[in-house]
């Protein structure tokens, strides 16, 4: 039995998600935008693991799903960084507001 | 106030402090280092949720691999010392929109409770996860390996210098 209510975990996840969303939308550096997205994915993982313990049918499914999410997030970070380095080689910038080739 | 509650409180505080530092610091390397604290604190949160294996994976993948790869990304690209800010109006509007989202979600989750079942997820956690992965979830597990291979090859090809392009530049 745990003394921490489910709502506390959900609140923590919501706050981290909002911080990540704010960082992803307002930062100019593409590396920081990528890492903010990782923070958002982490907040979602907290929700999955919390519901795995506190749902009506507690089980391991949430934990296993969060393992898959972590894998996909790692793959996403690698591909995102590769795109970033390719862009940097061509444009000499890492600022997201200067990456507007498709708008012009 | 039980010990579990105190541990949760400190871990949550560390996680949120790391996030706030990420928003407020100006040096990019410092931002990534601040986020390591958040990731390790989230691993502690998983331990309080009786998910030991996920906690270890979190420390390995996030505070180990992803932070290091992001630091590589920072070192390989050139940066201005101080990050320039976006226009103030845009930041305020974004903050207001996210605040609205926060309030709506807060209203929905603040007294969500399904009651506590007596789940004993922490007993043989890793062993049970392994058995589930190789019996019930074996097809997604194998597909994940394909996904990782695709990501590996794709990122190498994307980041590799194009030979034709180099010839054309000469």
From TrEMBL, chain A:
<dbReference type="GO" id="GO:0050136">
    <property type="term" value="F:NADH dehydrogenase (quinone) (non-electrogenic) activity"/>
</dbReference>
<keyword id="KW-0472">Membrane</keyword>
<protein>
    <recommendedName>
        <fullName>NADH-quinone oxidoreductase subunit K</fullName>
        <ecNumber>7.1.1.-</ecNumber>
    </recommendedName>
</protein>
<keyword id="KW-0874">Quinone</keyword>
<keyword id="KW-0812">Transmembrane</keyword>
<feature type="transmembrane region" description="Helical">
    <location>
        <begin position="64"/>
        <end position="88"/>
    </location>
</feature>
<comment type="subunit">
    <text>NDH-1 is composed of 14 different subunits. Subunits NuoA, H, J, K, L, M, N constitute the membrane sector of the complex.</text>
</comment>
<keyword id="KW-1278">Translocase</keyword>
<dbReference type="GO" id="GO:0030964">
    <property type="term" value="C:NADH dehydrogenase complex"/>
</dbReference>
<comment type="similarity">
    <text>Belongs to the complex I subunit 4L family.</text>
</comment>
<dbReference type="InterPro" id="IPR039428">
    <property type="entry name" value="NUOK/Mnh_C1-like"/>
</dbReference>
<dbReference type="GO" id="GO:0042773">
    <property type="term" value="P:ATP synthesis coupled electron transport"/>
</dbReference>
<dbReference type="GO" id="GO:0048038">
    <property type="term" value="F:quinone binding"/>
</dbReference>
<dbReference type="InterPro" id="IPR001133">
    <property type="entry name" value="NADH_UbQ_OxRdtase_chain4L/K"/>
</dbReference>
<dbReference type="GO" id="GO:0005886">
    <property type="term" value="C:plasma membrane"/>
</dbReference>
<keyword id="KW-0520">NAD</keyword>
<feature type="transmembrane region" description="Helical">
    <location>
        <begin position="32"/>
        <end position="52"/>
    </location>
</feature>
<keyword id="KW-1003">Cell membrane</keyword>
<feature type="transmembrane region" description="Helical">
    <location>
        <begin position="6"/>
        <end position="25"/>
    </location>
</feature>
<keyword id="KW-1133">Transmembrane helix</keyword>
<dbReference type="Pfam" id="PF00420">
    <property type="entry name" value="Oxidored_q2"/>
</dbReference>
<keyword id="KW-0813">Transport</keyword>
From TrEMBL, chain B:
<feature type="transmembrane region" description="Helical">
    <location>
        <begin position="137"/>
        <end position="159"/>
    </location>
</feature>
<feature type="transmembrane region" description="Helical">
    <location>
        <begin position="55"/>
        <end position="77"/>
    </location>
</feature>
<keyword id="KW-1133">Transmembrane helix</keyword>
<dbReference type="InterPro" id="IPR001457">
    <property type="entry name" value="NADH_UbQ/plastoQ_OxRdtase_su6"/>
</dbReference>
<feature type="transmembrane region" description="Helical">
    <location>
        <begin position="6"/>
        <end position="25"/>
    </location>
</feature>
<dbReference type="InterPro" id="IPR042106">
    <property type="entry name" value="Nuo/plastoQ_OxRdtase_6_NuoJ"/>
</dbReference>
<feature type="transmembrane region" description="Helical">
    <location>
        <begin position="89"/>
        <end position="107"/>
    </location>
</feature>
<keyword id="KW-0472">Membrane</keyword>
<dbReference type="GO" id="GO:0008137">
    <property type="term" value="F:NADH dehydrogenase (ubiquinone) activity"/>
</dbReference>
<dbReference type="GO" id="GO:0048038">
    <property type="term" value="F:quinone binding"/>
</dbReference>
<dbReference type="InterPro" id="IPR036259">
    <property type="entry name" value="MFS_trans_sf"/>
</dbReference>
<keyword id="KW-0874">Quinone</keyword>
<dbReference type="GO" id="GO:0005886">
    <property type="term" value="C:plasma membrane"/>
</dbReference>
<comment type="function">
    <text>NDH-1 shuttles electrons from NADH, via FMN and iron-sulfur (Fe-S) centers, to quinones in the respiratory chain. Couples the redox reaction to proton translocation (for every two electrons transferred, four hydrogen ions are translocated across the cytoplasmic membrane), and thus conserves the redox energy in a proton gradient.</text>
</comment>
<feature type="transmembrane region" description="Helical">
    <location>
        <begin position="32"/>
        <end position="49"/>
    </location>
</feature>
<protein>
    <recommendedName>
        <fullName>NADH-quinone oxidoreductase subunit J</fullName>
        <ecNumber>7.1.1.-</ecNumber>
    </recommendedName>
</protein>
<comment type="similarity">
    <text>Belongs to the complex I subunit 6 family.</text>
</comment>
<keyword id="KW-0830">Ubiquinone</keyword>
<keyword id="KW-0812">Transmembrane</keyword>
<dbReference type="Pfam" id="PF00499">
    <property type="entry name" value="Oxidored_q3"/>
</dbReference>
<keyword id="KW-1003">Cell membrane</keyword>
<keyword id="KW-0520">NAD</keyword>
């Amino acid at each position: 039995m745990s003394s921490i209510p489910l709502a506390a975990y959900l609140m923590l996840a919501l706050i981290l998600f909002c911080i990540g969303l704010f960082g992803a939308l307002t930062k100019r550096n593409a590396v920081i935008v990528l890492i903010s997205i990782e923070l958002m994915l982490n907040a979602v993982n907290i929700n999955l693991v919390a519901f795995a313990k506190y749902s009506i049918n507690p089980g391991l499914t949430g934990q296993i799903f969060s393992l898959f999410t972590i894998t996909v997030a790692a793959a996403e970070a690698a591909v995102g960084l590769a795109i970033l380095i390719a862009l940097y080689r061509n444009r000499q910038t890492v600022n997201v507001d200067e990456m507007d080739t498709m708008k012009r | 106030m039980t010990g579990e509650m105190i541990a949760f409180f400190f871990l949550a505080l560390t996680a949120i402090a790391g996030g706030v530092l990420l928003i407020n610091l100006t040096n990019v390397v410092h931002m990534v280092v601040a986020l390591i604290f958040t990731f390790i604190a989230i691993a502690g949160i998983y331990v309080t949720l009786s998910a030991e294996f996920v906690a270890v994976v979190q420390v390995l993948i996030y505070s180990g691999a992803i932070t290091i790869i992001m630091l590589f990304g920072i070192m390989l690209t050139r940066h201005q010392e101080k990050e320039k800010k976006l226009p103030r109006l845009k930041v305020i509007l974004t903050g207001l929109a996210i605040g609205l989202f926060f309030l709506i979600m807060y209203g929905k989750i603040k007294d969500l409770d399904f009651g506590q079942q007596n789940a004993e997820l922490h007993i043989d956690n890793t062993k049970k996860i392994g058995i589930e992965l190789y019996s019930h979830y074996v097809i997604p597990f194998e597909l994940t390996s394909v996904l990782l291979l695709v990501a590996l090859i794709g990122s190498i090809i994307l980041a590799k210098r194009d030979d034709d392009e180099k010839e054309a530049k000469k």
